[in-house]
Amino acid sequence: MTLIDVLEARARGETRRSGRLGLLLVESVLIVASFLLLGILLYQAQFSGAVRWLLGFVLLTAVAFVAWLQVSSGTEEPAPLETPAARGRIRTGEMASLMSFVRRGNEGLPYSQLVVSCRVRDAFAERARLALGLPPEAMRTVESDSVALRSRVHDEVLEDLLYLRTSDPDERYRWVREARARGGFGESMERVLDHMEAWR
Question: Domain spans of the chain?
């Protein structure tokens, strides 16, 4: 057979078929030989304890190998542990502190209610001062005079919050006491905040 004939046979796939036939023959011989060996070993196991142990060990190894193949084919390498991307540090500052006072104030703690009402009052007083174009001393004078306060703010709810006869802490607590008597600090504060937002 020439080189051209071999190449043509390969192109047609004939060599592959003959190679497959040879491989099939070798596999058949190995399977028959394995069964013969197993039969001989089982026959010898009747008379020898060592052969029994050897067969048991081989059987156990084969079962473990099959089990390992089944488990390893169904598993995969876990993703590597990665630390989360570093986030910039968030500064909560005054808002976190105020939120804790608001939460405790809603739970009924008088000191927290006083702190929240004072902060809301001071924030609105500053906003009103800037909107009215008054210096700080003039705004403090307006806050202590109910007639001057009414003529500039024109909102009874906000006037009640801003009105301070004196700078005494008990006077600042006056609004909290009245709000609690009116039906609840939370509802009164929400009403004040709504009026503050609408105020021009």
Answer: 3-70, 95-198
